[in-house]
Amino acid sequence: MTGVPSLRGLVVGRFQPFHRGHLAVIREVLGECDDLIVVIGSAEESHTEKNPFTAGERYQMIISSLGEDELARVHVIPVRDVNRYSVWVNHVESYVPPFDVVYSNSDLTRSLFSQAGYEVRKTEAYNPKSFSGTEIRRRIVSGERWESLVAGPVALFLVSLGAKRRLLDAGARPSKGKRGGGRAR
Hints:
Blueprint: E1 8-13, H1 20-30, E2 35-40, H2 55-65, H3 68-71, E3 74-78, H4 85-95, E4 101-103, H5 107-115, E5 119-121, H6 133-142, H7 152-161, H8 163-169
Parallel strand pairs: 1-2, 1-4, 2-3, 4-5
Helix pairs in contact: 2-7
């Protein structure tokens, strides 16, 4: 032990699916922190149009995208929603080890953690119009190219999972052209 205090970051997202934007955020945070907690939000949700993948599937997408050195520094923890913002930070705290700084580009997430006394930092922009779970799901259903927006192992996983069929069964409908991007979550 060197006596130097370690810094642990926290990132929260739904990762529906985990894409290159999410991966860029993780790598950015690992450049600033000794280790990182990645919270898979809405862990109880799956097989719906907005949340088609299970927490276990999202966990697999995340860990399959990370290198060996990154895996040693990242803790992936699914957390259920409580649907009450006033207790959400305490709820997250009850599931994860202690952390020092929260990374988010979501105004609501930054506000809630800041009000709870945490240091909150934004991450660099990474083209949220392309790197959006909504956009990737739309492209999958519409038969458009989407594979370059996710890491190779995630693309293979989604194909093997039958992601298009899952999305169609969940009520997604094919459309043409881009609908607005969104934030990485």
